Amino acid sequence: MFRQEAITYRKMKWRGRALLLPGIPLWVVAGLCLFFITAFLTFVITVNYTRRVNVTGEISTYPRVANVYSRVQGVVVKEFVTEGQIIKTGTPIYQIDVSKSTHSGVVSDNQRQDIDNQLERIAQIINRLDGSKKTTINMLEKQKAQYISAFQLSTDILKRAEEGLHIMKENMENYRKYQKKGLINKDQLTNQVALYYQQQNNLLSLTGQNEQNSLQITTLESQIHTQASDFDNQIYQMELQRYELQKELLNIDAGGTIIVRALVDGRVDSLSVTVGQMVNIGDSLLQVIPPSIDHYSLVLWVPNDAIPYITKGDQVNIRYEAFPAQKFGQFAGTVSIISKAPASPQEMLTYQGAPKAALTSAVPYYKVIVRPEKQAIIYNGKLLSLENGMKAESTLFLEKRKIYQWMLSPFYDMKQSALGPVNE
To answer: Which ranges does the record mark as transmembrane (predicted)?
Structure first.
């Protein structure tokens, strides 16, 4: 009774009657499987799926906000504008001191003082040369006037001497006629001839003196021009030295203080530095908002594998960080511009919303500009405008394929790797 077999039997003995439930009919299982397979095949064959990619960007105005950066290293010593002020092109904004100091004082101030002294001396020399030129030219003009007067006088005397010589020649001819007629002797004719030739010699001396006066006038005229040219050349040389010193003075001023001016019209949005603050090359000084904003655009950075599937006029979904999609939903936008060349790192650095990984990645990124349909958002009766630099994420819709094509894409890759050279 207490054998092991009896104990095992009592443990394994059923305490009630076993009931077996009937199973699911085979035709039902087969029908459900066929329905599921048919629905699955219909779904993967007929339904399309559009590949989409999420890219980041930021809101930018048109025209863009102008960022003014420092091109020198120095200390801001003066501020000419305030935030919110309307400025014009050329308006002074900051004065930056870039000078260096030694035991003898500020280097630029000492150099400027030396150049000012040199410029003053050059101005004095030019004035003296001017005065010497006028004095010399006046003296030569007076000498010329005297020689002109002497020339006129000698010309008049020469004319009268020529008239007297002509008269004496006629008398000599008459004396010859008289001598032939026997009215006078030969000695009288000889005296008359000697007087004629003596008068002719005197006329020759007067002619030489007259020509000498004429040559002296010509020489004085040449001296006047020569002296004037010499003085002008000296004055020109001194003026060249003055211009060089003035250029050097400008360079010294550039090495002392720099005036930062506005290059566009607009409104000062924010001043990044204050008086007394030191700035380095490339530091941001301020931002200038354009006087009139045409519209707001969303600047996106799209990788090259998505660019072929985007065309101008495509619709995109936009989600702003400032307006969470959980509360405000998504906003519509239209692609307006697609760049044809990859964006350079320098261009992407000018946008705060550019992906940081794109600056170090070997993948080229293209600039895509999207025009949001809503330029402002209404919330609780308030009009919330888009702002420059506002970050956003956008969904781009790319190529459309059947479900089975997406499922078989790994096999397409295997097929491409297994193919030989393409001869098409």
So the answer is: 20-45
Q: Which of 54, 59, 135 is nearest to 293 (CA)?
A: 59
pTM of the complete model:
0.58
Residues 91/260, Cβ–Cβ less than 8 Å: no
- Alpha-carbon distance of 106 to 278, in angstroms, equals 18
Confidence band for 335, pLDDT divided at 50, 70 and 90: very high
Domain assignments of the chain as residue spans, ordered by start: 49-62+294-414, 65-98+258-289, 105-254
Strand partners, 301: 367
Nearest-10 Cα torsion for 229, 233, 238, 240: 130
Alpha helices in 255-331 (DSSP H): 325-328
Q: Is omega for the bond preceding 303 within 30 degrees of 0, making it cis? A: no
Categorize the per-residue pLDDT at 334 as very low, low, confident or very high, splitting at 50, 70 and 90: very high
Amino acid found at 316: V
- Who's near 375: CB < 8 A, 6+ residues apart? 295, 296, 385, 386
CATH of domain 49-62+294-414: 2.40.30.170
Architecture of domain 65-98+258-289: Beta Barrel (2.40)
Instruction: Answer positive or negative: Cα dihedral of 68, 253, 241, 104.
Output: negative
